[in-house]
Amino acid sequence: MCGIAGYIGPRNAIEVVYDQLKRLEYRGYDSAGIAFLDGGEIRIIKKAGKLSELRNALPNGSVSANLAIGHSRWATHGGPTDENAHPHYDQFDQVAIIHNGIIENYLDLKESLSHKGSVFVSDTDTEVAAHVIGQEYATGVPLEEAVRRAIKQLRGAYSLVVVSKREPNKIIAVRHASPLVIGLGDGENMLASDIPALLPYTRSVYVMDDHQLAVLTEGGVAITDFDGKPVDFAPMHVDWDAESAEKGGYAHFMLKEIHDQPQVVRQCLAGRIDGNEIRLDHVFGDNVWIDIDRVSIIACGTSYHAGLMAKYMFETLLRLPTDVFYSSEFRYGDPVLSPKSLAILVSQSGETADTLAALKLLQDRRVRTLGIVNVIGSSIARQCDRTIVTQAGPEISVASTKAYTAQVLCMALLCLHIAQVREMPGVRIEQFVRDLRSLDTLIEQIFEQEAKIFAIADKIKNAKLMFFLGRGTDALVALEGALKMKEVAYVATQESPAGEMKHGPLALIEPGVVAVVGATDATMREKLASNIKEIQARGGKVVAITTEEDTLMARTADDTLVVPRTHQPVLNALLSIVPLQLLAYETARLNGCEIDQPRNLAKSVTVE
Q1: From 22, 452, 486, 603, the catalytic residue
Q2: 326-340 pLDDT per residue, tens
Q3: DSSP for 13-42?
Q4: Given this model, what pLDDT does residue 426 score?
Q5: What is the pLDDT of residues 507-524, one digit of tens each?
Q6: Active-site residue among 2, 268, 300, 410?
Q7: Confidence check: pLDDT of 243 > 70
Q8: Which of 29, 165, 269, 461 lies 20 to 30 angstroms, CA to CA, from 531?
């Protein structure tokens, strides 16, 4: 989710690209850099920190260039340092590149290039890609051909932008499962990772498709596929205002971030699955995973709900005892922690005050700590023994959506990695991996039902109370669905396992009450059907979320939504969060609520 910018034309490209990066700062803000042509050489200026650090280092108009590329970084490989900031040179200082995404096989490529004499100055996968391009470019082929040859050696999801001092009048851009947009002007052309960066300069844009390579010059743009075959393309006219453009044309950041989730799945998995093997070797050595006897997950809010899903996986797949604690309560319960414990601290921001306080206690007790965060330079990321970055990209809306999905996926990957190390019998890792790889497509299929979901929201928008129910993993997702509804739509909710209804909550059912019931687990549906009948008998209405092969819920509930089915109950339940998020969003919109900044709430809770 980095910011990418590029310009070729008569304006001062350095200033244009910096302005583009300002408009993309929400996509990445731990470092930034610009490469431009200066006296026949490629000059790179880059700085760790906020974009203002780069501004202070730029020549302030004393140098002008007709071509430049720029990058604002959301760090993945390598921390936020000057050396790891983009752009990067190749091994011969002939080309410079910027990159969004992940090169999965960068370690193998790096080793091979090192044997051929390459010396690397950063920890990034991007510099490895630069050296692969440089190796091909050294054979004397045109820049676009060198890039075309190089990308056939790269595995992953990425977009690349490349310039050369040998061919100073062109920019090469490649899209492979990572967004890239071209802006077309009169005697000038430009590119960016998102449309807002282009709008001050042109309203004519083309969103590149996967497996396309573009050559930008002042006079025009040519696009081919990866084999060099020309591609006809039709620009579109954008008439969004700047605020709408930052939201990708969506009315609210929350809706945009819900729709980001297929891409988030791809980014979360990229570089972490090699064939059927989970690659999390950087976290702890195998001896740690064999040694641990208990896991404690500490989190707040949405992250706590993700932790409950992890508990289910750790206990059912690994038979590893797992506790989930609210961060705000962890210190006050005198938790039982052994030298063989592992504590996992989950936080979108990495700055949650209660979770940081829990981390201090864990450090005092000398317990191993693993952070799962979305911000690489955050306090939790820096202070934990090891960290997994969710790679969900910046999340602007206060109500967290895509971060939840990314957190659950990261903990699923961790669980499978431990299963590999421990050689757990009965854990079908290959099938689980196939299901994980399919999630992005399955979420996209759910969006095809958006109109139906919104129509149901219109039916239930006036409910004075909503129940969120389920059994098994559906009961865990119900907690998160309820949280979204109360956060953004201000609807009072009651959430619990469906079997607990008879132990008190059923007293609240009366006409006007709505129950949203998760029913993605086929083994639980008959019992859920009985719970539904109990609600309907007392005047309540029921919306059921089930999987596509089910017919029972359609005959039982008042309204039914379906999600695609995988072989994993936990992933079926995870898919159901998407319609729950959309249901909360549309209920809030219909009721005129402030969606992205709901009353009384903040994005990051930095006080106890």
Answers
A1: 603
A2: 999 998 888 888 889
A3: HHHHHHHHHHHTGGG--SEEEEEEEETTEE
A4: 79
A5: 999 999 999 999 999 999
A6: 2
A7: no
A8: 461
Comparing C-alpha atoms, which of 466, 469, 470 is closest to residue 493? 466
Is-cis flag, bond preceding 235, omega within 30?
no
Topology agreement, domain 3-246 and domain 255-444: no
C-alpha span between 587 and 325 (Å, rounded)? 30
Which CATH code is given to the segment(s) 3-246?
Answer: 3.60.20.10
- CA distances to 1, 406, 497, 538, 560 from 581, rounded to whole Å, are 22, 15, 19, 27, 15
Question: What CATH number should be reported for the domain whose range is 255-444?
Answer: 3.40.50.10490
Domain 448-590 carries which CATH code? Answer: 3.40.50.10490
Residue of 334, 320, 327, 322 lying closest to 298 (CA atoms): 327
Please indicate whether residue 300 is annotated as part of the active site: no
In the chain, where the domains are located: 3-246, 255-444, 448-590
Task: Compute the distance between CA of residue 475 and CA of residue 50 in angstroms, rounded to an integer.
Answer: 41
Residues 6 or more apart whose Cβ sits within 8 Å of residue 364: none
pTM: 0.75
Total residue count of the chain as it appears in this document: 608
Is residue 96 within 8 A of residue 83, CB to CB? The reply is no
Ranges 110-124, 303-317, 323-337, 475-489: which has the least confidence:
323-337
